[in-house]
Amino acid sequence: MPSEKRVTRRLADGTVKTYTYSSAPRQDAVWTLGRVISSYRRSARFAGLAPATKTAYLHYLEHLRPLAEVPIAEIKRRHIRAIRDELAVATPAVANAVAKLARTILAFAVEDDLLEYNVLIGFKNLPGGERRAWTEAQVAAIGKLPENLRRAAVLGLYTGQRIGDCAGMTWSAYDGQGIEVVQQKTGARLWVPAHAALRAELDAWPRAAVTMLATIHGRPWRSGRVLSTRFAMAAGQIPALRGVTFHGLRKTAAARLAEAGCSTHEIAAITGHRTLAMIELYTRDADQKRRATAAIFRLENAGKTERK
Prior knowledge:
By secondary structure, this protein is mainly α. It folds into two domains: 1-129, Tyrosine recombinase, N-terminal domain (DNA polymerase, domain 1, Orthogonal Bundle); 136-293, Orthogonal Bundle (hpI Integrase, Chain A). The protein is built from 15 helices and four strands. It has helices spanning 33-41, 44-47, 51-61, 77-88, 92-111, 136-140, 147-159, 163-168, 196-204, 224-235, 247-259, 264-271, 276-282, 284-301, 304-307; strands at 4-10, 16-22, 178-182, 189-193. The chain has a two-stranded antiparallel ribbon with strand order 1-2. The chain has a two-stranded antiparallel ribbon with strand order 3-4. Strand 3 and strand 4 (189-193) form a beta hairpin. It is globular and about 100 Å long.
């Protein structure tokens, strides 16, 4: 039985009153994962995120709903691992993103003194969750997509922008030589020069909507997420494109720039990445291939000058 606490107070009129309090914890004082998530969504940290990031986070948080009533102190690594592994069967990138966001939520609870220790520190991503660049064979299969989605892939490939930014590109932002972009995630303002192949495409596209990309009904996409869903569904019907992501085109664009000999700063001027470390991650394979090719070229030609 919970004990009771009695406190005696003398009021201003001289009356003495005794107040009785139960020592039993109030139910609403229990911080469940769902309650912490609600607090996180009201926080300045969440408010400071870019709109596109907020939308993605809200989508990922839905996957944590089964744990909403679990007290935050009782969350274990195995709980998050179970959710992650279930998602990994079909969407490894989403699986890793959900686990990463769960770690962020627990870190928020620690900072707010709601939790003593973040049990997800050191929780590793599953292999295969990285959104990979498209192969040249996959790029060649772009033409098999429905026309409005083919245009989306072309725009992503030649500008290196995220799907939300591609969906939001307007004809008025195109001056015939390049496209002005304000990235949804970072707020970065870019002017992306249009590759000759992209200029030829844009000159041939109908301008039925204010945006460059449109639905089959000729209307702008409601959001990048809607476009992403339609794109994934269509790509999944094409054997050569199964497993690709639109974001992989961003990596392909960066890799092509690296293969052409562009510096990380030059690539960042196109993609809008804030950290050069991310550019290096995106172009790692391309840089390895370029350097290895240069090394073999030097080896093959070593001594030729002397023999002449």
